[in-house]
Amino acid sequence: MDERKVLDRHLAAWREAGLVAPELESRLRASSEPLLAREGIAWTRWALALLGGGLVLAGLILIVAENWELIPRWGKLAGWAALQIGFLLAAHESGRRFERPYLAEAFTLLAGGWVLAGIALVSQIFHLNSRPANGLWFWLVLILPAAWLLPRVATAVVAFVALVSALIAEIGDPQSLVAAQEVRSPWLWLAVPLLAIFAVSWLPRPAPWLRSWVGAWVFANAQFFLLAFGVSVVTNYFNDNRLGNAWIVAAVGLVAAAAWPARTLPVAWGNWGARGILGLSLLPWILLLLAIGGEASDALRLFAVGTAWVTQILAALLLIRVANRSGSALWVNLGFLALAVGILTRYFDLFGDYLQGGAALAMTGVLVLVILAFLESARRRTLRDSPAAPLAASGGQE
Amino acid sequence: MNARAKILILALVQAGTMLAWAGYHERLWQTAPTFRIALNPIDPYDVLRGRYFILNPRGTAIGPERPSEDSLLSAAAYKAFLGSETSYTGKAQIGFCSSGAIRKICAIARPDAPLPAPTGALWTTGEVNLWRDPKKQFTGSIDLGLDRFFLPNRARLPAPENVPGWEIEVVHRPGLPLLPKRLWFGGKPVVFL
Q1: Are residues B61 and B26 in the same domain?
Q2: Is residue A233 pLDDT above 60, yes or no?
Q3: What is the ipTM of this complex?
Q4: Residue B72 shares a structural domain with residue B56
Q5: Which of B59, B63, B122, B179 fits a disulfide with B171 by CB distance 3.0 to 4.6 angstroms?
Q6: Considering only CA atoms, which of A392, A384, A266 is closest in space to residue A328?
Q7: Do residues B152 and B108 both lie within one domain?
Q8: Residues of B in contact with A74 (CB under 8 A)
Q9: HSE-up of B167 (CA within 13 Å, CB side)?
Q10: Same domain, B148 and B53
Q11: Global pTM?
Q12: A95 CA to chain B: closest CA distance, Å?
């Protein structure tokens, strides 16, 4: 039972026993509200809702695919329409009448996915060869009203998936107005989910925990690109800033994230922490953009690589600091993991060529163990001395 | 209006939109004029897309090595299309003329150009990628937007895809791209429900 229901039950009992007056009850509720707001997310229920909804969806699609020739085309379409009406009504009734909120979320996910299945069905029946992005935008348009009509967080999840898919299809289509020329830099990898989460954040029930997932994606991708950036001096691979017209998508996504971090990135990062991590993650590529005449000199490239080495470590340290201040053990751990990966990568970058023979390998092993022991000690000390109450102990929003 | 009624309206709007979209294409299939184009299909299998033909219509490759019987376009038509330019990539009007039981590409025109002779051609839209090399030979391709044709998983084909005789029946909408309707092989329609 969730904490809010427990509180309701106790207050009702105290009210009946004459222990609390209405005014005191409302004050008690107001005082508990911040604690309830931090209530953890029932990940198991969400995982089961996703698994159940996904399996039903996949099963229904397979049934239609395997019996394609037996079901007339209007039979397929009528079946699709009847099931869609049924899923939406089930999402509504299971939440309202039967008080099964996670079952309602599962039906909402199913209804959202079933709309895409319907678009694919019509496309298959009539052999339509339109751009994939068109179908995904159509999906988004059809599911969007549900965000206002169904009081379910799953509507935001489906809208987020639809928007990310549509943006990826759009920038991946050479005929598109925002076609990407190159994706071998972090701009679009970071900006597309940020733009989608920013748009979804305006929905009535925006699923705040999606921001944590987007934060994890942004941080992991940024770290990967920063770690791999050094390789690009040789291979010229990860420093390609040519985005084509997709710079519009990148600019909108990153500006939205910088201007409204509370709508796009995890609460635990804080507003300035989020901006700092984002800025540090992109700094080497920003430096390359400053090249006169568009072609970066060798000196500038070398400077950008050095910057990447530094900013990768700085971004990890900044994450540890801001997460520690907000009491999020999960993000602190992730920061230390990034720090360990960064130190080890740079060690092998610098000394990898010299590690020949058993003694060198043994000494490297000892050094790795010493570094890891030091970092583990620092991690424990950081968590122990955290100035904030542990937000992540709830296993929840951060 | 209560919440349930709103949900019902949403469901009906979603279902109605999808059925209206399907109905538009069904009506086209039933009423719009159709004709057939010869194919060189390829039959791949894709885990995500399932089973389908890559249609690969004949007569869409432009070059000295292409089979001359696939297209009714002449070097003069390419020359007139390019005018003073040496290359063109973009939308174009594409004319189809009768050639026995099927139709072949017989004319191309710029999107804004008045439709030229030959009369009797059915005009549709597509993309033309054409250039004239230093030897004054024309090379390129015509994209009709006929990429894939979905095949049911358990469908049995009358012949392998590499056997000559495959054709696609397309729906003709003047000024719009062609839409695939059904496959033909050996002069007979291949029926899928």
Answers
A1: no
A2: no
A3: 0.86
A4: yes
A5: B179
A6: A392
A7: yes
A8: 26
A9: 20
A10: yes
A11: 0.83
A12: 12
Question: Could you say which DSSP state residue B174 is in?
Answer: T
Q: Within this chain, do residues B26 and B79 fall inside the same structural domain, yes or no?
A: no
Distance from CA of B150 to the nearest CA of A (A): 6
- Bridge partners, B100 (sequence order): none
Starting at the edge strand that comes first in sequence, how are the strands of the sheet with B45-46 ordered? B45-46, B50-54, B148-150
Q: How far is CA A56 from CA A67, A109, A138, in A?
A: 17, 11, 23
Instruction: Considering only the beta carbons, identify the residue of A84, A128, A129 that sits closest to B11.
Output: A84
Taking any CB pair shorter than 8 Å as contact, residues of chain B touching chain A are 3-4, 6-8, 10-15, 17-19, 21-22, 25-26, 29, 50, 145-150, 152-155, 179-181, 192-193
A77, closest residue in chain B (CA to CA): B19
Report angle CA B141, B138, B135 to the nearest 5 degrees: 145
Same-domain status, B80 and B11: no
- For residue B155, which residues of chain A lie inside 8 Å, CB to CB? 68-69
**Cα A74 → chain centroid:** 39
Pair (B27, B53) in one structural domain: no
For the CA atoms of B146, B147, B149, B154, the dihedral, rounded to the nearest 10 degrees, stands at: 170
- Quick one: B60 and B17 in the same domain? no
What is the dihedral sign for C-alpha B146, B147, B152, B154?
Answer: positive
Alpha-carbon distance A15 to A33, whole Å? 19
Domain that holds residue B137: 34-189
B82-134 pLDDT, tens digit per residue, is 988 999 999 999 999 988 889 999 889 998 888 766 667 889 999 999 998 87
Task: Please state, in angstroms and as integers, the Cα–Cα distance from residue A216 to each residue in A138, A335, A372, B105, following that order.
Answer: 29, 11, 22, 54
Total number of domains constituting chain B: 2
pLDDT digits (tens, 9 = 90+) for A280-318: 999 988 888 877 666 777 788 888 888 888 999 999 999
Q: Which helix (H) or strand (E) holds A33?
A: helix A22-37
